[in-house]
Amino acid sequence: MIQQKIDMEATGQAYRQARQAVRRRVIVCAGTGCVANGSLKVYEALRQETEARGLEVVVKLGDDCDCKGDVFVSKSGCQGFCQAGPLVTIEPEDWLYVHVKPEDVADIVEQTLIHDRPVKRLVYVDPASHEAFEQTHEIPFYKRQQRVVLAECGNIDPEDIREYIARGGYAAAKRAFKEMQPEQVCEEVLASGLRGRGGGGFPTGRKWALTLPEPGEKKFVICNGDEGDPGAFMDRSLMEGNPHRVLEGIMIAARAIGADEAYVYVRAEYPLAVQRIRKAVADAEEAGILGEDVFDSGRNMTCQVMEGAGAFVCGEETALMASIEGLRGMPRPKPPFPAQSGLWGKPTVINNVETLATVPLIIAEGSGHYRRLGTAGSPGTKTFAVTGHVANTGLIEVPFGTTLREIIFEIGGGVIDNLGQVMPDGFKAVQIGGPSGGCLIAEHLDMPLDFDSVKGIGAMVGSGGLVVMNRDTCMVKIAHFFMRFTQNESCGKCVPCREGTKQMLWLLEDIMEGRATAQTLELLEELASAVQLGSLCGLGKTAPNPVLSTLRYFRSEYEAHIVQKRCPAGQCKALATPEILADRCKGCGACLRKCPVNAITGEKKMPHRIDAGTCIKCGTCAQVCRFDAIVGVN
Ligand SMILES: Cc1cc2nc3c(=O)[nH]c(=O)nc-3n(C[C@H](O)[C@H](O)[C@H](O)COP(=O)(O)O)c2cc1C
Ligand code: SF4
Ligand code: SF4
Ligand code: FES
């Protein structure tokens, strides 16, 4: 098939010219978080209102566009600050509007697009200092970040290949295909010190250099977009926000190892990511960027997108390959490693989405330039999904070596209580690396975050989930949450993982529900090492990490549950003491009338009391109490 190849230079130039002809750009975030909060309605309202007010509006720029309008309205992928969404960004002023509703659009058009003023009531106000910020780059959440891999994510239209090209996209892939030998590509990436972002931190250049000399005509590249960790959405955001960059990284990886076929494996629960990456592949094919004789190099390259059913274990590389082959997604022992025998027995490189999205930058700017950020052992930046008890949740990117304190208190805006109010001394712990990781505590707040320092204290950077916990969090409950996740997700192939995680879960339940004895912790620790040692894949090997790290730092909290039958954070319902709060109780008697065991006494209009010995914690009284006066029952 002869393809009509796009002229990248002319396309980029035409796009840039068209952009310059438009006075202002309005970018509505259309990442999953903002879409869920109604951003598409905001987008539609904007288009209608701008047209109704007689503004010249363009919604698609490009070489075939006769654009000379006032306003270019476009959608983007995740702009990072999901918690404040739906977000609307105004360029070139860099004004950011938060929590935008369709009803706000008339004001945006009137004040901003017609009278060139920011809409003050829509700008971000810091919850702690109450300071208002008009421009994105002034907001502490963005100010401390260095968005390198995410640079265009949230700015560009992810569904327009011409905008990606206009910003220099695909130039690195072209260079790799036309001007570099595979060995040089491997060497450049090796020299950059890039380490895999999928969890293990293995040097990417080394992985590629090991695959390149493997014999055989046929080799594969796989982009791992499975991302199953609870709380993580970095890879999803990249695929939604800048799919061409991921694709360009895949092409460079293929050039580095001599592959002509690639797969992007994305979980089906990420429909927007699937849709955008599929469109990116189709548009790249149509532009002749993928297909035959790529960049007139004499080499071919194809890419297919595959949806996974959403099993956490399918993110493990050997299980993922089995899944692509149409088998049940179960890991197999290594060796042989994918580099020697991967997809359908052929040499295969499998890399994480963020790893691959970093590669074009290294080829475009050189390994030396890439190393200017990060630490010697962990160069570059890392994206983190910051969630939990923190004022500003969202997707961030910082250089390796940034401290947790900077992330939680400066970017994240500090720790919040369960009602969302900032709690200056409320920090208790942060779970890093999802179910495979561990928790870090106050003494780690000033430790530079990088692969080796985090590993040195028995946790792992993992894929980049950061769940912040305040002082009202029960650490046994947290361990239980992650253990329940891994137990549910165990593929069942090995007994220690299948049965061991179940037993560990039950022991944690014993602790939370007051049935544990002095032996429970010993048994929990014994089982943890058996599961670590006896499991085949990383899921089982790391499943005990949340238990072991909470035990290391919060043993006394476990002991309080076991010995005193008390949950220090007051979160374990079974251990709570039933009580009626005298200052809230109006003495209405509603609870007393409903209690099935007559555990409540009290005079009318006087505070009532519960006899904890008689109470069976059925929770009926709390359900009927209109004054929220009853605590410690189910
Ligand atoms: C249970 C389990 C789940 C995993 N899930 C993912 C995932 O969702 N995405 C990912 O890139 N790597 C995941 N990994 C790591 C992959 O097996 C593999 O190491 C990684 O994709 C390699 O890419 P990298 O070198 O770029 O990090 C998982 C590993 C295990 C053990
Ligand atoms: S460790 Fe668990 S998830 Fe991994 S292969 Fe064994 S049973 Fe399956
Ligand atoms: S929880 Fe049930 S048993 Fe206990 S005081 Fe309330 S209604 Fe009575
Ligand atoms: S989805 Fe809009 S900011 Fe993340």
From TrEMBL:
GO MF annotations in UniProt: 4 iron, 4 sulfur cluster binding; FMN binding; metal ion binding; NADH dehydrogenase (ubiquinone) activity
PROSITE patterns associated with the record: 4FE4S_FER_1 (PS00198), 4FE4S_FER_2 (PS51379), COMPLEX1_51K_2 (PS00645)
Limits of the 4Fe-4S ferredoxin-type domain: 576-605, 606-634
Annotated keywords: 4Fe-4S, Iron, Iron-sulfur, Metal-binding
Entry keyword 4Fe-4S: yes
Family (UniProt): Belongs to the complex I 51 kDa subunit family.
Name assigned to this protein: NADH-ubiquinone oxidoreductase-F iron-sulfur binding region domain-containing protein
Organism: Anaerobaca lacustris
